């Protein structure tokens, strides 16, 4: 994201070389960068949570620091080393939205969605 590029590492190839040379790095976790981000670098999966306040608008085609209000978020990370599996579950909290039954579609718990101007 252009607005985050100034925060990049000064020597990214040096870090990537260390990660590749180590040989057993399975996942990189870091945070927070005000966006939920996941991908791969040097063949190693990575993920970051957005944090507890606002998030940067998803604007891949332009610079700027437009920030939008977002619910706070945390992640639950499940690591199964025997099967070489990592699962990251993101969870927003503090905002109450209506909850519906996946089976019937019926309203289970009424919520209070934020007002939209």
UniProtKB/TrEMBL annotation:
<dbReference type="InterPro" id="IPR029052">
    <property type="entry name" value="Metallo-depent_PP-like"/>
</dbReference>
<protein>
    <recommendedName>
        <fullName>Metallophosphoesterase</fullName>
    </recommendedName>
</protein>
């Amino acid at each position: 994201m252009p607005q985050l590029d100034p925060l990049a590492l000064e020597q990214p190839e040096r870090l990537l070389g260390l990660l590749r040379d180590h040989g057993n790095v399975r996942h990189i976790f870091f945070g927070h960068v005000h966006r939920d981000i996941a991908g791969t670098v040097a063949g190693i999966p990575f993920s970051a949570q957005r944090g507890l306040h606002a998030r940067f608008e998803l604007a891949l085609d332009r610079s700027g620091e437009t920030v939008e209000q977002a619910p706070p978020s945390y992640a639950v990370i499940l690591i199964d080393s025997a099967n070489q599996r990592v699962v990251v579950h993101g969870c927003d909290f503090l905002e109450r939205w209506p909850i519906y039954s996946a089976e019937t579609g019926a309203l289970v718990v009424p919520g209070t969605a934020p007002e939209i101007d």
